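[Discussion] Sanity-checking designs against the backbone

I'm trying to build intuition for which residues belong where. Below is a structure token string of 93 positions. I'd appreciate it if someone posts a full sequence so I can compare it with mine line by line.
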């Protein structure tokens, strides 16, 4: 089942560089990218900070997976786990 959200077309002015980059995307991806960027600006979301947070979460997930693979889930390095929890707490503030 495909649930399409209703869309509206608006005209905006973009720098040549930004327009060229957006035009390389397929139309559906272009719509999603533009919507996301405009929505983020309206909600005061820093996309650069959000991307950095995502990278941190991926790195933490990899660290946890490696730790569990090495210990076979039998024991967890308490200091490593504490570091991960502290890092997650910092990201969530």
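Best answer:
Here's mine. Compare freely.
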């Amino acid at each position: 089942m495909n649930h399409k959200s209703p869309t509206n077309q608006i005209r905006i002015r973009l720098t040549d560089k930004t327009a060229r980059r957006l035009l390389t995307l397929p139309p559906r991806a272009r719509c999603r990218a533009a919507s996301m960027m405009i929505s983020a600006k309206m909600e005061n979301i820093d996309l650069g900070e959000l991307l950095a947070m995502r990278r941190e979460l991926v790195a933490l997930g990899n660290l946890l997976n490696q730790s569990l693979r090495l210990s076979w889930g039998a024991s967890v390095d308490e200091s490593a786990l504490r570091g991960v929890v502290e890092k997650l707490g910092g990201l969530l503030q």
